[in-house]
Design goal:
mainly beta, four-stranded antiparallel sheet, 48% strand
Length: 127
Amino acid sequence: QVQLVESGGGSVQTGGSLRLSCAASGDTASRYCMAWFRQHPGKEREGVATIGSDGNPSYAYADFVKGRFTISRDNEKNSLYLQMSSLKPEDTGMYYCAVDLRAWCQSDVRAHQYDYWGQGTQVTVSS
């Protein structure tokens, strides 16, 4: 069992920055693939970024965030982060962290692949 709690969301203007955090408990998250997803109202969750386990380090980003967002993890704190910069109104949504109980992340990122989810944190970007 892995429990995930996101924080760091908020409201910013276009071009601003936010850093999302996801605290994991119940198991050692560094053993698993972790990801950030986001969801717009009425739409399916979409993968934003993934990071592989310590033993299979890898990073992947959706095209719409490349060069603007950075995913990272702190294994000592059992935490996952998403540094978001140059935010745009279309980045508005609920952001979730998730764990896939595999050491490596699949290249085709789909929500159904992930086993544990946090409750989400809202990000709002105004123009």
